[in-house]
């Protein structure tokens, strides 16, 4: 079985110095092979990477002073 995972995304301009996920990432369009009829858009960053992309809990961590 062949599974494709097409995506269009952007990384922060400081990716060379701070690495992922600290540089941030915006998944503009991502289609996961096991969900061919769903298109995802996700924000990743420190503490919110991989499958733990932006959600309410992650947003609270980012916006605390």
UniProtKB/TrEMBL annotation:
Pfam short name (any one): GH16_XgeA
Q: What is this protein called?
A: Family 16 glycosylhydrolase
Q: Which UniProt keywords apply?
A: Glycosidase, Hydrolase, Signal
The entry sums up its family as follows: Belongs to the glycosyl hydrolase 16 family.
- Note the InterPro entries from the entry: ConA-like_dom_sf, GH16_AS, Glycosyl_Hydrlase_16
* Gene3D superfamilies on file: 2.60.120.200
